[in-house]
Amino acid sequence: MNSKILIITGSEDQGVSCLAKLLKTQDIYFGKKEFFPPGDGNLEGFWGHMSFLSINTKLLETFHGSWDNPPILPENWEKNETLKMIEKHAEKLIEQFIDKPLWGWNDSRTSLFLPFWRNIIVKTIPNAEIFSIICIRRPWDAAAYFENHHNFDTDKSIKLWIRYTYDSLIYTKKTRKLFIEYESLTQKPQDEIERIHHLLKEL
Questions:
Q1: Which residue, 39, 42, 145, 195, is the most exposed by fewest CB within 10 angstroms?
Q2: What's the pTM value of the predicted model, to 2 decimals?
Q3: Does 191 have pLDDT greater than 70?
Q4: Residues 6 or more apart in contact with residue 154 via CB below 8 angstroms
Q5: What is the DSSP letter of 117?
Q6: DSSP E strands: which ranges in the chain?
């Protein structure tokens, strides 16, 4: 069976959770009930798989960073020998989805580590077709979100928006992808769902 995999990226303010919630109603498998609990700024929950969050957090810690202070990664970081144990955990996680024809996950931190996850998928499900959905939002709106929900100043907020957006773009240069604008997602969600379904037919 050839799996089709949707990887949703973008910083946490850009509709990543909202999109995952919508796609979960469209026969796209997002795992069992291991989702991020509701929290400040998202009372309905974040609709992200806790195990992906856990592994991404371990990756951040390995390179001495955090989600709000992402590390500068060295060249060929995804081949670093110190990642071997994390790779084993990631392989076991991906194996849980191996019999699913259409599945995906969302975690904004994935934006920073897409090469790692791509390598894991290729190793675990060699014939999988990977498709990226990049959620984007106007930078000043993103900055307002970070200021309101995390008390970050404008400079830090904009830098976070740049880093997550840039990494999502640079790591998907050779991947089929779709851009979803936050404003369109919240105002015309069905239109965005139809765009995704249209592109999935081309996979």
A1: 39
A2: 0.86
A3: yes
A4: 143, 147
A5: H
A6: 4-9, 102-106, 129-136, 176-181
